[in-house]
TrEMBL record:
The keyword Ubl conjugation does not apply. Keywords: Calcium, Lipoprotein, Metal-binding, Myristate, Repeat. This is Neurocalcin homolog. InterPro entries: EF-hand-dom_pair, EF_Hand_1_Ca_BS, EF_hand_dom, Recoverin. GO terms for biological process: regulation of signal transduction. Residues 38-73, 74-109, 125-160 form the EF-hand domain.
Amino acid sequence: MSEEWMKEFEKDCPDGFLREDEFVAHYSDYFSAGNQRRKEALAKQIFRTFDKDASGCVDFWEFMCGMSALLRGTTVEKLKWAFSMYDLDGNGYICTTELLNVLKLMHELRYPSATEEELEKVQAPLEKVRDRVFNELDRDGDGRLELREFVEGVRKNPALLKMVEEGGDDDCTVQRLK
Ligand SMILES: [Ca+2]
Ligand SMILES: [Ca+2]
């Protein structure tokens, strides 16, 4: 597995570094459908979770750490990665706006060809999902999810993460919320 990654990485990054704009371009091409601006926003966010020292470049080591946490990590490692992905501004907690934005991005990933109108329609159900997730996870009720609240809460109730990943837009999720 890691040898394949090494090859891919060397092909894409002959100088040993992957820059943000290269990653974003690569990613946008990979998902041919979907709104360009939103795809770029998501790609930047994924890149940022890899770019641990915020240098704007990901070296092979950072790339490997990111990928292995994502693909082969323990539940806690995956949850930490999810947390850093959801914490869009990187200030150490997830606020309600960030969670809603993540829900929208996840929805767009599942339905890359959704029109603006369709996205408008899912706004209300996604807000419900957000409220539900906060009710469950925000133990101290301060409107912020900290890493500890997030990891412990989702470990106790994995269905919550599934709701976030699946965007809560299918009928059964909406049903479950009623
Ligand atoms: Ca934040
Ligand atoms: Ca809190």
